[in-house]
Specification:
alpha+beta, binds ligand EPS, 380 residues
Length: 380
């Protein structure tokens, strides 16, 4: 592993942070591109009221000088504008109750109590999280398990995607279906219906990367296989329940001859540009845990968000009685946002594998290695 990153931050805390390690020196960062990815994550029909409050933008704290990486860890921050409304219940400091009069004490306690949660949401981290970490206020689970954390992943991934683009590797995401509907009109309608009903909706998205060199990842160890690394990263996105590469689960019911992508010499090219081509891409660009030069294609299935206006049957952890789940402002549907999150999570894994092959240390050196390998591949 060449690239490592950690994120921190609560949904209604001061800010979200990430530290990224493993990016070498001399990589120029296009801040407009990174901020635009953050903006894309906030878009899509069905997003909740929070998206009207936030304008997610990246602030680089370290590891970059004059917009170029230095090779040092890169620290980034995204502000939570909503923190203004949560200063008391999300304070990182304890209040000095001894110095306060009774009225001030009561006001603080009331504000904290107002935001305390006892009724767990089925499908969310609430119940297992509260048991695991010994919390009696589910707020302590909700704040970190909220999908707001994906903003930091998009920022880290957008840095990686921006670097991949310097090597002409380009990715895109698209929504395939929402609530089983595929046309824009049907999707609009079902999201409106879901919102009116207090329901939530999931769906399916696809990500695609082109111009990848052959041989990123490896077959020699289980944990170097690119498909495993990609699937793990994509599966870690909140609400994702399935990841498929290429034909995915459809490989089960066909003859081998209908599955594997036959290989041909591209005779249309001159000898010096000779390359091998396929007429199909059922493998989704990965064979033997390595890129094969075709487009990487992955699809993700997202479950409906478990924070629901029409609450589900659940329990109160304080009274231990049957009660309806807690509802807090949330999205009806975040499938389009998932496309942006998946695109950028995948970019982290692909740049990691790219750096393993060509070295991360310095942009010019990496570029030279990349070009030399390109020449070698063309003559293979
Ligand atoms: C999110 C911000 C959150 C939620 C959502 C994702 O903001 P708030 O709780 O203030 O409305 O809208 O997270 C969830 C609903 C969830 O269940 O995780 C964001 O920035 O993506």
């Amino acid at each position: 592993m060449t690239i490592r990153f950690l994120t921190s931050g609560e949904s209604h805390g001061k800010c979200l942070n990430a530290i990224i390690e493993g990016i070498g020196s001399g990589y120029f960062l296009d801040l407009d591109f990174i901020n635009n990815e953050l903006k894309n994550r906030q878009q899509g029909k069905g997003r909740g009221g929070r998206m009207k409050i936030e304008t997610d933008t990246i602030e680089i704290k370290s590891g970059v000088r004059f917009q170029k990486t230095t090779g040092a860890p890169i620290c980034i921050e995204i502000k939570n504008k909503d923190f203004e409304n949560w200063k008391i219940p999300m304070s990182t400091e304890e209040f000095d109750y001894n110095s306060l009069d009774e009225a001030a004490k009561a006001e603080i306690r009331e504000k904290i109590e107002e935001k305390a949660i006892k009724r767990v949401r089925p499908g969310h981290a609430d119940l297992p999280g509260a048991i695991k970490y010994h919390h009696k206020d589910i707020r302590d689970i909700l704040e970190r398990s909220s999908a707001r954390e994906t903003a930091t992943r998009v920022a880290v991934g957008a840095i990686c995607q921006d670097i991949l683009r310097k090597f002409n590797i380009q990715g895109e995401a698209k929504t395939l279906s929402i609530g089983g509907k595929t046309t824009t009109e049907e999707i609009d309608k079902i999201i409106d219906t879901a919102r009116q009903m207090g329901e939530s909706l999931g769906g399916e998205i696809e990500i695609r990367f082109k111009n990848l060199p052959v041989g990123l990842g490896s077959f020699v160890h289980w944990d170097r296989r690119l498909d495993g690394r990609l699937a793990g990263a994509l599966m870690s996105i909140p609400a994702v329940k399935a990841v498929e590469i290429g034909l995915g689960k459809d490989v089960c019911d066909k003859f081998g001859s209908k599955i594997h992508d036959e290989i041909y010499v591209n005779t249309a090219q001159t000898q010096s540009q000779q390359e091998y081509i396929r007429h199909t891409n059922n493998a989704g660009g990965i064979e033997g845990g390595m890129t094969n030069g075709e487009n990487i294609v992955a699809r993700l299935s997202m479950k409906p968000i478990p924070t629901m206006k029409k609450p589900l049957n659940s329990i109160n952890i304080e009274t231990k009685s049957d009660e309806q789940a807690h509802f807090e402002r949330a999205d009806t549907c975040a499938v389009e946002a998932l496309g942006t999150v998946a695109l950028n999570m995948a970019s982290i894994i692909l740049l990691d594998a790219f750096f393993e092959k060509f070295g991360p240390d310095n942009f010019d050196e990496t570029m030279e290695n990349f070009k030399n390998y390109g020449k070698y591949c063309k003559n293979f």
